[in-house]
Every structure is written in structure tokens, then in C-alpha cells.
Specification:
Protein name: Lycopene cyclase
Structural class: alpha/beta
Pfam families: Lycopene_cycl (PF05834)
Radius of gyration: 22 Å
Shape: globular
Order of helices and strands: EHEEEEEEHEEEEEEEHEEHHHHHH
CATH architecture of the largest domain: 3-Layer(bba) Sandwich
Organism: Streptomyces argyrophylli
CATH topology of the largest domain: FAD/NAD(P)-binding domain
Number of domains: 3
Strand content: 25-35%
CATH superfamily of the largest domain: FAD/NAD(P)-binding domain
CATH class of the largest domain: Alpha Beta
InterPro entries: FAD/NAD-bd_sf
Oligomer: single chain
């Protein structure tokens, strides 16, 4: 039997971030005991991936950054690129291995955090807390009890929604023979890619030096591609669009992020909560998650240290979620031309303000001004249609 005040299930970005915020002492505040349950190596462990976010100045995880940029570029299907400086923001890239290494070193030194490698089988409320049944990699069944449980594991299925798109991508970490990348600029959306029949596609380039970068092909669409289709799409983008020349592929990454207006429950029991993507930390219209889960875990940790009920807050405001629902509907219905919509926003809205908008950090009047830069007719029609649409499970 394992006992702790706080059990954190899942060793991905959300679970590690919450454990990290609870590690060690904070002056004048409580220090709860924490048990972090990681899945054994295998299909239940989160795959290696890259997270990107933006913030002003230095941040909590700067020691694990792969790179950061102060300038961005968006490329329309034809014509000149749209460029913008991000000051005072920095667009930051962190790879999961580096993040896990930084957090893991701090957790290893923490007197109040323990780690357990096991597969979670059941989670249930009991009097005064919750009980979690787990099984070790060797097959041994164990039980742990905690006053509070925070589950960051991916949900088995998505809740019913009016609109659900998938942001799915495949990328190569490449090294080129000649210096073809600008290390100071991130290509956020490059629409010089063949557009799918449903949704939109774009290239994404995160340079870490003149010869090295992460080069990705991304789609917002209802269905994923086959492995061969992903490889062909990245090859076309690297060879025919970017014209990288002689290129060595160092590693690859593939991912799928649901973009949905489904409400994601953050409390699933009297003492059991969901955090991270499972708890609605993903911004529906962009797929960005890292910044949202940091806000969420910071609030949970503050509540626990003050002895308050630690209900995870919504990572994004009701207004942001409502605007995202309209945008998703406009894109999914085909009413809005995705490349034209996003290029129009970046062409007419200063990049720092637009990134603050995408992170839900703008005021109402700024939101309205940005909304006027979108195609009014398709967006208005989508907004009027939403209340009439039933919520359906995603198949």
C-alpha cells in the first residue's frame, strides 16, 4: 500500500509539471507529499515530442529549451511572406526528453516526491480521498491511496462535440549540407503546401542553426494520413518547396491533437481531477497545450499548498472557447478559406498581439478588433448555426 496526499497519474508534460511545482518547500506554505505514477516503457508512455509556446523574457523551463526565436514568418500560397517581430515575447521550443531530464533531476532531489513506475488500472473515490489500483511492469498488483488524484493520461475517447478537427503532423529533424535556415526566424505557417479537400495544410520550420531544423507537415482535417502519405508530404515540402538539397534526417516525430469544442471535464470524482490535455488545457483553435497546462498546474499547486480544494481551473476563458468554436465550425464547414484567414490575421494584426490573442491574453476590445480581420460572413453564419447543432461523438 502506497499513501500520499497527492497522486499524479501520467508522466507527460502535465503530470511532470504539477509534480515539479509541488517539489520542495515554499516559504510559509504547506508541502504535500506527492506520488507520481509513470507508465512503464511501452505503448502507454507518452511518445517523444516537441512542445512550443511563447512568453516574455526568461521562463521556468529555459534550461531545457532547444531554441527560441524573436521573429516569425507566415507564407501565403503565393506572394511575399508576412513577417513580424515578437518582442517582448519569445517563441520557445522544448523537446520532451530535455524537459523530462530537467524536471527529473529536480524531482530526484525532492524529499516530498516519490516516483512509481506502474500501469494504472482503476481509479475510484473512497471516503476521504481516492484509491488507485496499479500493476508493475513485472505484473505485481498494488494499491495506492491519496487525498487528491490528478489524472493527466489521455482520455479513452473524446466527449461529444459539435465540431472536431484533428491537427495531425509529421516532422523531420534534419541536417542540411548547406546553410539554408535562418536561426532567428520561425516559419509558423507556410501555406505553399497542397491543400486537402477538407481542412487546410501548412509547413512549419523551427531552425536550431543554419544547418539544422525541425521541418513539419501539418493538417487541420477530419482524418489522419497513412505513414506513406506523411512521408511523401514532408518529402515534397522539404525537396520541392523549401529546396533543402542534400539532407540527413536525424529523427522524426508524429502526432495527433484533437481540435474540438467538446467540454473537457476537469473533475471526474469527489477527489479525482483531470489536468493537461485531458482536462482541457489544449487551445481548441490552435492545438497549443503547453502554456495552458502550465497555468492549470500552477493554480492547482497554489491551492494545494494553501490547503484549499484544488479544482483545476479552465485553462482558457469561456470567451476564448466560444470564439474557437466559431472558427472551428467555419473551417470544418469549408465556409472559411483557412490559408486566407490566417494570412489575413498575421498581415493586419501585430504579431505580439495576435499571439496574446491565441493564448487568451487579450481584452474584449482587442478580441473584437481581431475578429473584424476575419471573414465576417462565414464567421457570422457559423456563429448563428452553432446553437442548432447537436453534439455527437467523434468516430
Amino acid at each position: 500500500m502506497f499513501e500520499a496526499e497527492v497522486a499524479v497519474l501520467g508522466g507527460g508534460a502535465a503530470g511532470l509539471s504539477l509534480a515539479h511545482r509541488l517539489a520542495g518547500h515554499a516559504r510559509g506554505l504547506r508541502t504535500p507529499s506527492v506520488l507520481l505514477v509513470d507508465a512503464p516503457p511501452g505503448p502507454l508512455r507518452p511518445p517523444r515530442r516537441t512542445w512550443c509556446f511563447w512568453e516574455p523574457g526568461q521562463g521556468r523551463f529555459d534550461g531545457a529549451l532547444t531554441a527560441s526565436w524573436g521573429h516569425l514568418r507566415v507564407r501565403p500560397p503565393t506572394g511575399d511572406p508576412i513577417e513580424g517581430d515578437l518582442a517582448p515575447l519569445r517563441y520557445k521550443m522544448i523537446r520532451s526528453d530535455d524537459f523530462e531530464g530537467l524536471v527529473g533531476r529536480d524531482l530526484a532531489r525532492s524529499p516530498n516526491v516519490r516516483r512509481l513506475e506502474a500501469t494504472v488500472e482503476t481509479v475510484e473515490d473512497v471516503e476521504g480521498g481516492a484509491r488507485v489500483q496499479v500493476r508493475s511492469a513485472g505484473g505485481e498488483a498494488r494499491v495506492l491511496t491519496a487525498r487528491w488524484v490528478f489524472d493527466s493520461r489521455p482520455p479513452g475517447s473524446l466527449p461529444a462535440a459539435r465540431t472536431t478537427l484533428l491537427q495531425h503532423f509529421h516532422g523531420w529533424f534534419v541536417r542540411t549540407a548547406r546553410p539554408v535556415f535562418d536561426p532567428g526566424t520561425v516559419d509558423l505557417m507556410d501555406f505553399r503546401t497542397p491543400q486537402p479537400a477538407d481542412g487546410l495544410s501548412f509547413g512549419y520550420v523551427l531552425p536550431v542553426g543554419p544547418h539544422e531544423a525541425l521541418v513539419e507537415y501539418t493538417e487541420f482535417s477530419p482524418r489522419t494520413l497513412t505513414d506513406g502519405e506523411y512521408e511523401a508530404a514532408v518529402r515534397h515540402y522539404a525537396d520541392d518547396v523549401l529546396r533543402l538539397g542534400d539532407t540527413q534526417v536525424l529523427s522524426t516525430e508524429t502526432g495527433v491533437i484533437p481540435m474540438t469544442d467538446a467540454p473537457m471535464p476537469r473533475q471526474v470524482g469527489a477527489s479525482v481531477f483531470r489536468i493537461g490535455a485531458a482536462g482541457g488545457a489544449t487551445r481548441p483553435a490552435t492545438g497549443y497545450t503547453f502554456a495552458g497546462l502550465q497555468r492549470q498546474t500552477r493554480a492547482v499547486a497554489a491551492a494545494l499548498r494553501r490547503g484549499r480544494r484544488p479544482v483545476p481551473p479552465a485553462a482558457h476563458s469561456a470567451r476564448s472557447r466560444a470564439m474557437d468554436a466559431v472558427l472551428l465550425r467555419a473551417l470544418a464547414s469549408g465556409r472559411a478559406d483557412g490559408p486566407a484567414l490566417f494570412c489575413g490575421l498575421f498581415a493586419h494584426v501585430p504579431a505580439p498581439r495576435l499571439l496574446r490573442f491565441l493564448d487568451g491574453r487579450t481584452r474584449l476590445r482587442e478580441d473584437l478588433a481581431i475578429g473584424l480581420r476575419t471573414p465576417i460572413g462565414p464567421m457570422l453564419r457559423s456563429a448563428l448555426e452553432l446553437p442548432l447543432l447537436p453534439r455527437r461523438p467523434f468516430d
